[in-house]
Structures are given as structure tokens and as C-alpha cells.
Amino acid sequence: MHQTGSFQSAARATEKAIRTVKYNKTVVHVDDDPAILKIVHRTLEIYGIEVVSVQDPLNAIAVITQLGARVVMLDIDMPGKDGLTLLHEIKRFDAGIQVIMCTGMVSLRTVLRATSLGAESCIFKPIHDLNEIARAVDRAFQRIDRWWIALQDWIDRRDAFHAIENKVLTP
Fold it and tell me: In the chain, which ranges are continuous DSSP H helix?
């Protein structure tokens, strides 16, 4: 009985933490192909996800930082700056940003390089199932939510410890 109560209280705490998670849930999509930008934008809009499309990869970092974006989709093969270079720059700036690679360059070397640089997932073009994009974005946001919940749990535990410590040390 005690365990059931503790599970219920943990579930309530998790629900509360989820409700208090506040961050920008906009996806920044970087691709030099306007047709792909349009398809991805429309697909994610159907799922209620806000998308900012960036056609020039040289503008990507400025847009990501200005918006405080937590999820980014990147093409790999782009003129001016390739997606792997952008991925490296994004992760150097903020390793917590979830990056989804979307590429027609299907090779084991490319996928391994992208994952070693911190890509969360890789979607291959041509995209036959547009729902795959929404699922990848949803997984990225779920991962962020779990991190925020874990962080809030750590803060709550730290605060509880300090409260107990202050009661013990205060005469």
C-alpha cells in the first residue's frame, strides 16, 4: 500500500514538473532546398509544431540563438556551410539542443560522423513517410522534457536537503 502511494505521489510530481516545463518548442529547419523546407514546414504544422525555415545555412546559428530553439533539423549537403559543420557549431554552443539530420547522403560514414558529433537521429531523403519527421521531432521534445524533469527533481532534492540541514544545524 505504501509503495502504491509513493508511486502515485511520484506520478503527481512528474505531472506537475511536466506542466511547469517552459522552453521554446519551435523547430528550426535548415535546408537549401525550398521544396523540402515547404514540405517539412507543412508536415510539422499539421501536428501543431511551429517551424522556422532557414534556407541559407550561414544564417542558421543566428536564428537558433535568437529564438532559443531546442530542436533543430539540418540537411547535410548545403552550399556555404554543410550540416555536419553546423551540427558541430550548435553542439559547441549548447550540447542540449536536439539535432535531427535530414539528408540524401546515405552512407554509413555520414551517419557515424553525425552521431559522433551529437545528432539525435537521422532521416533519409527521399522521405516516403512524412510522419517520420513528426515522430523524430516528438522524440526530441520528449528527450528535452525528461531532462527538464530530471533537473527539477534534482533541484527539489537539493532544496529538501538544505531545508533538513538548516533544521538540524539551527539550535
Answer: 2-20, 34-46, 60-67, 83-93, 108-116, 131-169
- The answer to whether 127 touches 133, Cβ cutoff 8 Å, is yes
Name the DSSP letter for residue 97.
S
Dihedral sign computed on CA atoms, order 35, 40, 45, 50: negative
Please state the separation of Cα 36 from the chain's center in Å. 20
Backbone angles phi, psi at 94, to 5 degrees: -155, 100
pLDDT tens digits, one per residue of 98-150 = 999 998 877 888 888 999 999 999 998 888 898 999 999 999 999 988 887 88
- Return the C-alpha cell found at 10: 511520484
Q: Are strands 71-74 and 98-103 parallel, antiparallel or unpaired?
A: parallel
Is the whole model's pTM more than 0.90, yes or no?
no
* DSSP-assigned beta bridge partners for residue 72: 28, 99
Looking up cell 532546398 gives 33
* Cell, residue 2: 505504501
